[in-house]
Design brief:
alpha/beta, 12-stranded mixed sheet, 3-stranded parallel sheet, 15 strands, 21% strand, F-box domain-containing protein, F-box-like_dom_sf
């Protein structure tokens, strides 16, 4: 029986009716159903798999399944995958390899190409040498991996004809090589940390993304920003969206001071800065602390380097570690013509760090809600009339690279 609050009890519907309403495969294209499930997390997928047999068949193809091998009983990767009862090679779509042991690496490389539906691959801390051809992989993340050379990295990437989203972090190689005329690899998204590895630029300049995400440049700001500028000029009209993972407003000032060039990016329509605005509190909440909001005075100068006004500018509001010296009035910066010419200003309230110690009692959502309640009125009060209707506030954390990809 089904109980409806405030209504009389009604009998359970017949099983045939329930099956009709829970069977979505017959009413929607299978590709669309599969795409919807690909955005669900594991907990939601497990719940969905209990709805019906149809949903079970769809959901289990997207659930992350941790697999461990016990050497004490002789279990090996080959034993598991070669077992006639094993369906992993025909069902697995996402693989995340975390620091595999050396004796697992050779068979793992050999078996990767045998996963029929593998479309998402993330590898951390692995000596790859060179990757095998993987025709269906669309999203690839390489973290702290070691290759034979720069040429083997590019060769591996060209072995992935469906590749669209790529993340590269702290790659190394055994022997450097010179790359003269590498075929360009067109991507939808590239997430790269700028590090001073020998001739890393040779790899980078062969990649042509529409959305580029660059992480903080901390080693040699002037040298590295010059390389970033050269790369952006190389991309030219190919790049449509740029995300600069700035750790503080100081990084924005460094970009302007050292001449980050954006003039060649004629198709750039969206710019995201992960620390455009910062806030801090004096005193504590119990004593009715005062919240202060500061913005980088270099922002108008950075926008002045763009060849045309942006459709969307995203600024993340992040907590400052301490008092920010020399605060710049919000109204002075936000009233600049380069802000009022924007199509839309998106402000993301981030709470990666706490505004006050009392916030430590809540969840991440509580942090964000408290921060937004303190910060949003101050920002709105500083907005000029020309920006009314263009500003959008959002709750969230600073632009997660995996969700973006």
């Amino acid at each position: 029986m089904i109980q409806h609050p405030g209504r009389r009890t009604c009998p359970d519907p017949p099983l045939s009716t329930m099956s009709h309403h829970t069977s979505i495969a017959g009413r929607l294209a299978p590709e669309l159903v599969d795409l919807v499930h690909s955005y669900l997390d594991d907990a939601t997928l497990r719940t969905a798999s209990l709805v019906s047999r149809d949903w079970l068949h769809i959901a289990r193809n997207h659930i992350t399944l941790p697999i461990a091998f016990d050497k004490r009983n002789g279990s090996t990767l080959e034993d598991v995958l070669d077992d006639p009862q094993c369906t992993l090679l025909t069902t697995i779509r996402r693989i995340h390899l975390v620091h595999p042991e050396p004796d697992v690496v050779p068979p793992l490389r050999a078996y990767l190409s045998r996963f029929d539906h593998l479309s998402w691959l993330k590898i951390c801390g692995m000596i790859l040498g060179e990757m095998p051809p993987l025709p269906r992989v669309r999203t690839l993340g390489l973290f702290f991996c070691i290759f034979d050379s720069q040429a083997s990295i590019l060769s591996s990437l060209h072995n992935l004809p469906a590749l669209r989203n790529l993340t590269l972090r702290r790659l190394r190689w055994f022997s450097p090589s010179v790359i003269n005329h590498a075929a360009p690899l067109l991507l939808d998204f590239l997430d790269v940390d700028w590090h001073r590895n020998e001739r890393f630029e040779d790899i980078l300049f062969a990649l042509r993304p529409r959305h580029l995400m660059v992480w903080p440049i901390i080693d040699d700001a002037e040298r590295d920003l010059a390389t970033v500028s050269t790369y952006l000029c190389h991309l030219g009209e190919r790049i449509e969206r740029l995300t600069l993972q700035t750790a503080s407003t100081l990084h924005i000032e460094q970009m302007v001071a050292h001449g980050l060039e954006l003039g060649a990016c004629t198709a750039l329509r969206a710019l995201e800065l992960t620390s455009g605005i910062q806030y801090w509190a004096s005193g504590d909440r119990a004593a009715k602390s005062r919240v202060h909001v500061t913005v980088s005075s270099a922002l108008p100068g950075l926008l002045a380097r763009l060849p045309a006004p942006l459709d969307i500018l995203t600024l993340s509001v992040t907590p400052a570690a301490s008092h920010v010296s020399g605060p710049v009035p919000l109204a002075k910066v936000l009233g600049d013509r380069r802000f009022t010419d924007l199509g839309r200003l998106r402000i993301v309230i981030d709470a990666a760090r706490l505004l006050t110690a009392e916030d430590a009692m809540g969840s991440d959502l509580v942090y964000i809600q408290r921060a937004r309640a303190d910060v949003e009125p101050l920002i709105r009060a500083a907005m000029p009339l020309l920006m009314v209707g263009k500003v959008e506030f959002m709750n969230g954390v600073v632009l997660d690279q995996e969700k973006t990809s």
